[in-house]
Amino acid sequence: MSLRIRPATRADLDGLGRMGAAMVSFHHQLAPNRFMAPPPQVESGYAQWLGRELASNEVVLLVAELDQKVVGYAYGREEGTDWELLRERCGVFIDLWVDPTARGHGAGEKLTREMISAFRKMGLPRVVLMAASNNPTAQRLFARIGWQPTMVEMTLELEGE
Ligand SMILES: CC(C)(COP(=O)(O)OP(=O)(O)OC[C@H]1O[C@@H](n2cnc3c(N)ncnc32)[C@H](O)[C@@H]1OP(=O)(O)O)[C@@H](O)C(=O)NCCC(=O)NCCS
Question: Shortest CA distance to 60 belongs to which of 137, 2, 8?
Fold first, then answer.
């Protein structure tokens, strides 16, 4: 199987919209209260959003092709100093998705390594990401590459107490 990572182009936007929507559904299934349900037109909304992001030189948007077919994407952006998060300028790794039928062939890891290398070229000192606490597959991948846990998000449900 041939695996290739390349920058996304506008021609990828429909596929990115579909995968972005799948990413929203995946998280909603992991924790339905914490992660929103996919709103109507989530695919076109996601495609529009990523289309705008593509124009920014602070954004890294990559796709993975397995045997010439787009099966995954990675999306990250440079963020400046953030006083709310007490975080200096860094790369933020926002989305990583590989279609279920294409998993286990190294696309997730290769997308991640290319994202790191793009952030390194942008002169960023570190890459920060969030992973759902009940998503061990993703956490394993990130830990294998070298990420260390630095923050724990906690949620208290108020309705229905
Ligand atoms: C997390 C995710 C991106 C991983 O994608 P992937 O393409 O399957 O990732 P990889 O193939 O690089 O690694 C997955 C596993 O396959 C194994 N693998 C990779 N290449 C392999 C190969 N050629 N042969 C056998 N196994 C292989 C890896 O060792 C890894 O094993 P592990 O899970 O036991 O650690 C994917 O599961 C996904 O999209 N999940 C839903 C969205 C998500 O969780 N995103 C992250 C949000 S923070």
Answer: 8
